[in-house]
Amino acid sequence: MSPLSPSDDDGPPLRADAQRNRARILDAAEAVFAELGAGASTEEVARRAGVAIGTVFRHFPTKNDLLAAIMKRLLARLVAEAGELGGGDGLFTFFSRLVAQAAGKRSVVDLLARAGVEIRLPDTVGHLEQAVGELLRQAQEAGTVATAVRLPEVMALLISVCQGALHGGWDAGLQERTLGVIFGGLRGH
Amino acid sequence: MSPLSPSDDDGPPLRADAQRNRARILDAAEAVFAELGAGASTEEVARRAGVAIGTVFRHFPTKNDLLAAIMKRLLARLVAEAGELGGGDGLFTFFSRLVAQAAGKRSVVDLLARAGVEIRLPDTVGHLEQAVGELLRQAQEAGTVATAVRLPEVMALLISVCQGALHGGWDAGLQERTLGVIFGGLRGH
DNA sequence: TGACAAGCTGAGTCTCCACTCACTATTCTC
DNA sequence: GAGAATAGTGAGTGGAGACTCAGCTTGTCA
């Protein structure tokens, strides 16, 4: 893994054009990887962003760095989303939203799956676990989730169901029924 | 997709050495893809099988054909395994065994996920659905699974949980607790 | 056992893709 | 607005991996 990518560290601030391009590249990469999976070429990202390929590599020295940067944004968004939920149904809502996203976008899941393997993002992943943990706590307090349920299996289910939704191309009905089974299991009865 | 691979069609029977090599290639491929995922090189498969790479391509004109052949064997085994189970716990046992396999081997899941995407194996996948459907029917008859549960969500959960186990590297305890939640959901209370 | 078909071999081709770098263009600073 | 620093460009490099094929080997069958 390269050292910190520009705009992450505290080095000299980026030039205006560089900031613009960096944002364009991130957006393009997110879209491209969402459509084609993490196997999509860096060239395609550059084309979509409207920059030369060299520019992509200037900002993200390796393809992995680019993936990591996207992953970080995605996770940060999820954490934010989780942070806004709560109460008895927060955890369930979070599950549903994640799955709905996963069914359409390869990136979320393709990347989620890589966390901890090729990409190291312990902090951000930790934050997500923390946020989900809080949702779990609130749900258990409200009595909508059995107290025997622990965080690791909730995370495991979250990842599983995203993977499944992605690969299986679930429609809305199947999503609902599948989650229904899991929610039943979480409730305990 | 290429036409039928040798030994699937009814053309002239394979020569003895060809049969031997075909079997070796399939075994090697299964092992290699299990370890390294479907991205492993055909060269590695040839090396492990102790044949030249040309031989692999003689038997399986494209890498996809090779993957399809392995997939077919894997699914056939799963169907056979499902066929031997039954009663109130058959479905649960099947789930547990699949997940236990998935946690160790990339192939099962990596390939399961591709069914219907790159690889076309409608018959065999259909057979698996049929076999799982029978397990579901028996479990519902025995009262261990709620009657509201339908086959599609069972398949969806099966695939999800395999994906999750694969990517997350679950240990035995996590497997058990995660499946516990799902089993609870299937039971209905 | 000889002859022919079937199968095996592996160096070589082709394509794709991550990544580089010498050069040019833009922005910033004073 | 000029000079310096920063950023952009895109043809080029290197490597990996799927797939081919001309020549050699082996099994089969009369």
Mean pLDDT of chain A: 86
Q: What is the total number of structural domains of chain A?
A: 2
- The whole-angstrom Rg of chain A is 18 Å
**Main pleated-sheet profile of chain A:** none
The CATH topology assignment of the largest domain in chain A is: Tetracycline Repressor, domain 2
The succession of helices and strands of chain A, N to C, reads HHHHHHHHH
Summarize the largest interface: chains and residue counts: A-B, 29 and 29 residues
Runs of chain A with pLDDT <50, length 5+? 1-7
CATH level-two architecture of the largest domain in chain A: Orthogonal Bundle
Distance between the termini of chain A: 46 Å
**Can you tell me the overall shape of chain A?**
elongated
Estimate percent helicity of chain A: over 70%
CATH class of the largest domain in chain A: Mainly Alpha
Q: What's the name of the CATH homologous superfamily of the largest domain in chain A? A: Tetracycline Repressor, domain 2
Proportion in β-strands of chain A: under 5%
Word description of this protein:
Chains A, B: Residues 41-60 bind DNA. Chains A, B: InterPro entries: Homeodomain-like_sf, HTH-type_TetR-like_transc_reg, HTH_TetR, Tet_transcr_reg_TetR-rel_C_sf, TetR_SbtR-like_C. Chains A, B: Residues 19-78 form the HTH tetR-type domain. The structure is a homodimer of 189-residue chains. Chain A has 189 residues and is mainly α. Chain A has 2 domains: 16-62, Homeodomain-like (Arc Repressor Mutant, subunit A, Orthogonal Bundle); 65-187, Tetracycline Repressor, domain 2, CATH 1.10.357. Chain A is 72% helix and 0% strand. Chain A is built from 9 helices and no strands. The longest helix of chain A is centred in the middle third of the chain and has 22 residues, at 63-84. Chain A is elongated. Chains A and B meet through helix 8 and helix 9 of A and helix 8 and helix 9 of B.
